[in-house]
Design goal:
The chain has about 300 residues and is an alpha/beta fold. It contains 10 helices and 13 strands. The strands form 4 sheets. It has a 7-stranded parallel β-sheet with strand order 3-2-1-4-5-6-11, sandwiched between helices. A two-stranded parallel sheet has the order 7-10. Strands 8-13 form a two-stranded parallel ribbon. The chain starts with a strand and ends with a helix. The structure holds nicotinamide-adenine-dinucleotide and uridine-5'-diphosphate. The site of nicotinamide-adenine-dinucleotide has 28 residues, from helix 1, helix 4 and strand 5.
Amino acid sequence: MSAALVTGGAGFLGSHLCDRLLGRGDSVLCVDNFFTGSQRNIEHLEQHPRFDLLRHDVTLPLHIETERIFNLACPASPVHYQRDPVQTTRTCVLGAINMLDLALQQGARILQASTSEVYGDPDVHPQPESYWGRVNPIGIRSCYDEGKRCAETLFFDYHRQHRLEIKVMRIFNTYGPRMQPDDGRVVSNFIVQALRGEPISIYGDGQQTRSFCYVDDLVEGMLRLMDAEAGIIGPVNVGNPAEFSMLELAEKVLRLTGSRSTLDFKPLPGDDPKQRQPDISLAGSALDWAPRVSLEDGLVETIGYFRRLLAT
Ligand code: NAD
Ligand code: UDP
C-alpha cells in the first residue's frame, strides 16, 4: 500500500485517479481548492477509510507525509484558465514549486500532469516529445501554455539539481464522465447542448482537429508512468491518436444522442491550435500502453453520464 497525494483530486481526471488508486489498495489524500472541481466528483469516496480530503490551494506551501505526488491541480478548460489568468500561472508555477519542495522533503516520487498545449499551434504533425512546440508567449492561452512549460522546466531542474524522482506526462484532450456541464470544453459542450436541444456551438469553421482520449485509458497511462522504473522520467505523450475535426465530433454527438440540434458557428478564439495528434510511440515502448476505447464507445458512456446528471 502506498500513500498518494492527488492535487486537483476533486476535478475530472483527479477524481478518476483517486478511484483507481483506492481500488488497488493505496491510501489517498485529495488536495483541492474547488476552483473547477466539485464535491459531486468525490462524494462517493467521503466515507472510504483510505480517503482524505484537504481543501487547500497549491500556490501555498504544504507539509504532509506522502510517498507519491500526482500534481494535477490546474484548471484545464480554456474558459476557466482564462477567467483568472494570473492565478492560472501562479497555480502552474507556484503549485509546481510547492509540490516539488514537498516531494524533496518527503523523498517522494512526483508526477506532473503536463499537456499537449506545450506544443502550442504545432507545425509538426503528429507531435513527438522531441518537438519543442510553437507557443505564443503573450496570447490568451499563454497563462496555461507557458505556465505548464515552466512547470516542466522546474521538474527537470529539480531532477538535475536535487536528483528528485520525476515523471512528466503530456496529456492530450481527454473526456469522459465527471466533466462539469459548464466546463466549456468541446466534448461536454456538444453533449450538453445536444441533450438540451440547444444549438451546437462550433468555433470557427469546425475544420480544426483534436485527438480525444477516454478517461479510463488516460488514467491507466498515468499509473503506468508513475509506477515505471526510475529511469523513465518523460516527457511522455499520452492520448488517443485517432484525429477528428470538430464538425466530425458534432456529427457523432448528434447521431449518438438522437438530437435535432442545429449547428451554430461562432468566432474562433485567439491562438486556437489548428490540429493536434499525439505520437504515442514512446508510451508504447516505455510503458507498454495504448488506448483501448474508441471515440464512439467513450461518447456513449459520457452521454449516459450527462443524461443522468441533467435529469436530476
Ligand atoms: P479540472 O478543471 O476538472 O480539474 C482541475 C482540478 O484542480 C479542479 O478540481 C480544481 O478545483 C483544482 N485546482 C485548480 N487550481 C487549484 C489550486 N490552485 N489549488 C488546488 N486545486 C486547484 O481539469 P482536468 O481535466 O481534470 O485536468 C487535470 C489536470 O490535467 C490539469 O493539470 C490539466 O492541465 C491536465 N490536463 C488535462 C487535460 C484534459 O483533456 N482533461 C489535457 C491536458 C492536461
Ligand atoms: N470548440 C468548439 N466549440 C465549443 C468548445 C470548443 O468548436 O463549444 C473547439 C475549440 O475552438 C477547439 C476545440 O473545440 O478548437 C477543442 O476545444 P477544447 O476547449 O475542448 O480544448 P483545447 O482547445 O484546449 O484543445
